[in-house]
Amino acid sequence: xxxxxxxxxxxxxxxxxxxxxxxxxxxxxxxxxxxxxxxxxxxxxxxxxxxxxxxxxxxxxxxxxxxxxxxxxxxxxxxxxxxxxxxxxxxxxxxxxxxxxxxxxxxxxxxxxxxxxxxxxxxxxxxxxxxxxxxxxxxxxxxxxxxxxxxxxxxxxxxxxxxxxxxxxxxxxxxxxxxxxxxxxxxxxxxxxxxxxxxxxxxxxxxxxxxxxxxxxxxxxxxxxxxxxxxxxxxxxxxxxxxxxxxxxxxxxxxxxxxxxxxxxxxxxxxxxxxxxxxxxxxxxxxxxxxxxxxxxxxxxxxxxxxxxxxxxxxxxxxxxxxxxxxxxxxxxxxxxxxxxxxxxxxxxxxxxxxxxxxxxxxxxxxxxxxxxxxxxxxxxx
Amino acid sequence: xxxxxxxxxxxxxxxxxxxxxxxxxxxxxxxxxxxxxxxxxxxxxxxxxxxxxxxxxxxxxxxxxxxxxxxxxxxxxxxxxxxxxxxxxxxxxxxxxxxxxxxxxxxxxxxxxxxxxxxxxxxxxxxxxxxxxxxxxxxxxxxxxxxxxxxxxxxxxxxxxxxxxxxxxxxxxxxxxxx
Lengths: 382, 179
Fold this sequence. Notes:
The structure holds two protein chains of two kinds. Chain A is an alpha+beta fold. In chain A, 38% of the residues lie in helices and 28% in strands. A four-stranded mixed sheet of chain A has the order 8-7-6-9, with helices on one face. Chain A is rod-shaped, with a radius of gyration of 52 Å. In chain B, strands 1, 2, 3, 4 and 5 form a five-stranded antiparallel sheet that branches. Chain B is elongated and about 105 Å long. In chain B, helix 4 (85-99) packs antiparallel against helix 5 (131-143). At the A-B interface, helix 1, helix 6, helix 7 and strand 13 of A face helix 1, helix 2, helix 3, helix 5 and strand 4 of B.
């Protein structure tokens, strides 16, 4: 990672980790297949072909194949596992793909009868296409380290003779290298002006690693992608929360303005409410008078002798609450009936009634008819 | 940029990926919890403010009607006959004395005013009063309506002498404030 996060981010993604193996270690064959075959059928057919042409069983080979759906030919290639040292295979688990170097040109768009000649320090590889997207032949010729340019030209001419007639010949001074990709669906290889693009599904087929190990690595890759998506989902949620914070800030300012408006209006509204309350109270004092003694007089006039009033309280203009007791509880119902029969009373409720030691206590709430009470006359002066 | 970050993330060891993922998840959860809490609080505050503003708007809309009602209520009163707090106290005291009520307890009047009209309310406690004195006092107060009036009334039988009453009243007076 770069020293500066900005530089790190602006540097762009690194190229996919593709390990290119020496072509000299592989042998290859073009195997005819049915154009209508499925990928699984082609894979099985390729396995059988390799078992037939290889002196080693399939389990002792690192192998891969290149087949484009609809093509009548598949290119299979393999190498004896023991040709690779432990040090060479150490880096493989960290790589996304491990393929022979010639595989990097397989994605190029070539005309029929084209040959690409790949040059490497240890030899030359010719990839020849007769027709269609799958090469018909891959040939490698080793070159001694002390070989001159003339030897190299010699070897190239011999290779071209071996592959047969070529209408176009592309020479690559060095094997193409993978470029940083903007898509997960393809890998782009480039060498000078030459460019080859391979879909990742075909790259998976070219991978020569052990099939069980590959399956494990692919599971791990899927798990890593799930982790990445979960993490990026959380980051996206944080982005939404950041927008939410801005919205909340705006809403907070709006709310503050409303509260200020409410506070500013508050004294005026308070005054209007006070005006209303005062007007109501003045109106009550002037027109709706409380007649507590008149209410009490009505109650006393109906009270049986054995009932004793304890407390009488007005709850509003038309209601009187009376607490009373009696030693003769039979008189309570008579008292209530008498009150209900009084012309001034609208109704009588008895919310509480209890008895203890032959003494019954009870509460009456008497509702008077509005305007039914007449002011009592002033007492006669002597 | 996202592909760079993705490549960086995918190239980490599994434990580092898990750690990074967990950190981001915890950060998102903490932020979500805090944000949703604040959104909830603001929503409740906004609802309450909306209700209060609606209420204020209703009062402001009815302002003219209410002020008119207050003016009408005041116009029924003669300013000279309205009673201020001092006068209320002295008049109630005088009426109680004239009615023959001896054991009285009068609280200091409490005032409610809007600047033009004031209502003064005092609590009157009477102990061991006979019925006729209470009636005399009551009639005297009633005669001062609508300037003085009884707003609450409670009577208890006296414990020592059941023929006598203990009474508590709220008596109010209205005053037109002269500026």
